[in-house]
Structure formats: C-alpha cells, structure tokens
Amino acid sequence: MIDSQGSAIHRILVLGGTTEASRLAQALAQAGVDGIFSYAGRTSAPIAQPLPTRVGGFGGVAGLQAFLQAERITQVVDATHPFAAQMSSNAVQACAAAGVPLLALERPAWQAQSGDVWQHVPDIAAAVQALPTEPASVFLAIGRQHLAPFLACAQHWYLLRLVDPVLDLPAERGQLVLDRGPFTLEGDRALLQAHGITHVVSKNSGGAGAQAKLTAARELGLPVILIARPFIPARTVVHSVNEVLRRIHGVSS
Ligand SMILES: NC(=O)c1ccc[n+]([C@@H]2O[C@H](COP(=O)([O-])OP(=O)(O)OC[C@H]3O[C@@H](n4cnc5c(N)ncnc54)[C@H](OP(=O)(O)O)[C@@H]3O)[C@@H](O)[C@H]2O)c1
Q1: CA-CA distance, 37 to 22, in Å (whole number)?
Q2: Is 63 in the pocket of ligand 1 (CB under 6 A)?
Q3: pLDDT per residue over 171-200, tens digit each?
Q4: 37 CB within 6 A, ligand 1
Q5: Residue 16 gets which letter from DSSP?
Q6: Does ligand 1 lie within 6 Å of residue 83's CB atom?
Q7: Ligand 1 centroid to 216 CA: how many Å?
C-alpha cells in the first residue's frame, strides 16, 4: 500500500510472547508504525503493549491467512519464543499463502563457555532420560508445558519457576516459585543454593533474560541438561529490533 505522498504504508503483525516482541512493539509505537500485537493467551496477566493487542490462537494456518487478509497486514514479524515451533511454522505457511513478507526476530542460541557442564539433548524425552536414576534436586526451568514426563520420575524433587500457579506440587515432590524474568545472577545463584539443586534442565532459549541460571550453574559446578531448539521451516531471520525497523521502515532507534 502507498499513501498520497508515495510512501509505503505499513501494518505490522507482531507475534509476541517474548521480551524481544515487547521491545519491538515499543519501537514500532515510537516510530509511529501501525501494527497489531498478538498473544497466544497463555498467561493470566500478559504485559500491556503500546500497540492494539489481540489474544488467542488464529485457528491454524488458514485462520492466520484469513486474519492477514482481513486486517490488511503488510508485514509479519514472528517474535515468538524459539520453542513456539507450531506458531512459527504456521506463520511461514500463512505468509507464503497470503503473499505477506515474514521476518523472524530470533535470539541466538546459548553457547557453552569454559566451566560449563552441559549435556545437550534433542528434546524433552531425552532430557527426562538424561536425569540420573538416583534421586536428584532438579531446577526444571522449562516453563509450564511438558512438566508431566519429568514429574512421572517420582524419585526426583523439582524446583519450578512459572508465571502463573498452574499446578499443585506436594512439598515432597517439589516447590513452585512464581516469578517472571528477567532474572539476576545473584537471585538465581541464591535460588539454586537455597534448594540444594543438583541438576538444571533448560531449553536453549537464548537471550539475556533467562541466562542467569546457566551462569549460576557454572559458578556452582552444576550439570545443565540443555534441550535443543525445535525445527522451524526456513524464513528470514534477524537478531535485533533495529534490524527489523531497518528492513520494514528504513528507521532505527
Ligand atoms: N514454548 C516456550 O517455551 C515459550 C516460552 C516463553 C514464551 N512463550 C510464548 O508463549 C506463546 C505460546 O507458546 P507455545 O510454545 O505454546 O506455542 P506453539 O506451540 O508454537 O503454538 C501453539 C498454538 O498457540 C497459538 N499461538 C502461539 N503463539 C501465538 C501468538 N503469539 N499469537 C496468537 N496465537 C499464538 C497458535 O494457535 P493457532 O494455531 O490457533 O493460531 C499456535 O498454533 C508464544 O507466544 C510464545 O512466544 C513460549
């Protein structure tokens, strides 16, 4: 779309649920770019955004394609979490079908440093298998999904950190801490020590907000079971909000 001065009119759909998506929404609003922010609706009190916001699934690829067309979206920015593979795959297909360009704002994966004791595993099932057979105190830092296969290993005690109280955990099975990132090294070090954690299980989410637990684990010499990112079909990937702005609007903050 072009305005009367011959400039491109943008209407951006931001697929959110991450710190980066919130930063992008802020930057787009500041630059005066029209857009819609989309949440899956997983948390009870999502962070307010400076763009008009919708909540809930689109209804698969067809639903997203219809949404793009109905809302006259000119650009989709997929700023979902690297493990939100279904949404990201749907975005690739729906954008291709609707002829709408897609950019993914993605955090680089974490890389091991000297002193890290990391065991890389391909998925949740392999992470469960990687835990020892003898009882362990596990910081299960994987969010609210996929807890069941870990909790089925009855010999372990689990420390969970979640945004919402989505389950009851008997004291003998573990403890639930309600918190939302970003997390600090001091805080995560104290958490691991206070609960006598022996193993950390984490997704390789990347980014700064959840990295402190890995640094704390390194300092304390604790093993980390790191779950690899799921497959996402090929798309154009950028790593910063500024790069998104440059590509869609020729502006940077
Ligand atoms: N997975 C994680 O570890 C993780 C961590 C932190 C934050 N998050 C955030 O939590 C949300 C859900 O993650 P997930 O792993 O459950 O995703 P997912 O498995 O890839 O998505 C499942 C379905 O949820 C809906 N959905 C997901 N993200 C959406 C969004 N931003 N806007 C509207 N609908 C969305 C879509 O439903 P329809 O098919 O009906 O469109 C999608 O097919 C994402 O926004 C993600 O950024 C995820």
Answers
A1: 9
A2: yes
A3: 999 999 999 989 999 999 999 999 999 999
A4: no
A5: -
A6: yes
A7: 28
